[in-house]
Amino acid sequence: MKNLLKNKILFISNLLFYSGLLVGVYGLYIIYKVKLSLPEGACLIEDNRRILIVSVLLLVASILTEWIGSKKSYKG
Length: 76
Prior knowledge:
Blueprint lengths: L1 H34 L13 H27 L1
Helix pairs in contact: 1-2
């Protein structure tokens, strides 16, 4: 039972990590694509801030679920 719960938490943590990684790469790709069409001195991050924030939140959630999973395995 404990291993099953630990495996589920590890799977969720990995899923959140890879989701955050993909969203971050997508955001950086969009920034690069927009950079080619904007004039010099324009802010590239302004329009894509939400994508990058979602990416960071997913990565932080991945770290937290990994931490919770390791805490649960030490308790019992």
